Amino acid sequence: MKRNIVYIATALTLLSSVNGLYAQKNKLTLSDALEMAKEGNKTLQMKILEEINTKEITKETKNGFLPTISANAGYSYYINRQVIFLPGSFAGSTKPVQDITVGGKNVYNAYVSLYQPIIAPNKLQQVKIAKLNEQLESEKTADLSSRVAYNVSLHYLDMLMMNRQLDLLEESLQRNKRALKDSRSLYEQGRGLKSDTLRSSIAVSNLKSSVSYLKSTIDVSAIELKRLIGTDDLGEIELTDNLDLGEKSNVNDLYQIDEAIEIAQKNRKELIIQQLSINLQEKKTKIIQAEQLPQLSLVGQYQVQAQEDNMDFGQYVLPRTSYLGVQLTVPVFSGNRIKSQINQSKIKTQQEKIRLDDLNEKVKTELSTILNKQTEGYAQLQIQQNTVELAALNQQMIEDRFKNGLGSRLELTDAELALTQAKISYLNAIYNLRILDLELRFALGLISL
Fold this sequence. Notes:
The chain is α+β, with helices and mostly antiparallel strands. Helix content is 65%, strand content 15%.
């Protein structure tokens, strides 16, 4: 019996330790989340495969300068012999043209042919276009990586903000529960008003609703964050970074607009991609123009053939024919088709240049807006910080009055609510600055996985 009790106790201990292990939260820093997204984000994985595919296309295009060697073989059985037409005098006939049956009924033919481009301006331009496409896809992958990093960081900061809000709301909920308990006690003693109890009860109910909604929102955000980093195996996660500004708390450290524009022009992937698109379109114009240039190729063939009426292969004669030469192709007239294509390509190039100018203006406007918001954000941060200090002082004063019987519980509840609201507003000011800093780094092209 004692042994059974020991076994049961041991089993319960192990079970409780396993449950505690599974209930343990997985800690996650922002750098860890970005690193996981680099390897696990599905959209990024597809884009990387597309980049690899573009490299293979470049190899294929370069191989266009290698020789093409093909072998062919065929057999035909002629029910009626082949016919050729000769002058009648050649065939001993009085007819001007005499048809003559020739050849065997079994016809065998095999040959190997060679084609080697020597001068091929269009193929050269195709290789340059393929290399540009490869570079373009590489920049697009980097741009997508930057966007994924931005989205992961944004969701991480959102969850940090909501967790901090949840802490403040739960603290306020506990204070309001105590206030409700005090109000009920005073009301039962005949020293308080029923309206005070009712107001405290409403405040507690509202806070419970806000806490429940915020917890649900955090859970949904965690699911989206897991999707972005490409994993479902983390279970319940615990964010270990904090929302504080750290060294970014000085308004004097902000970029000047000219400095920001210069950095963005060097690093912003959209601008680099658009410039490559212009270069690509110019190369496409050149490849169309190359169709008007002569092309020189090396050609050759080695052929073996035989014709007989029987299947006695040992008696077959196998005549051989071979040649090696060069082939020159000179475009003469294409009905102005090439000219029209060149004009169309030039128009598209001009469109891409206008699009680049518009994108530059958009980037300048975006940077100016963010920098102005940051300046205002730091001003709001200072205001909210002062408000928190005043609200805390007011709450302390009213609490002292309440303890000394000089103030009502309702005044203390209002002061605590004002302090909570001030802390949330201050938290929002910090959050807005963190988001603006993230947006600025993204606009400058300085964020990536």
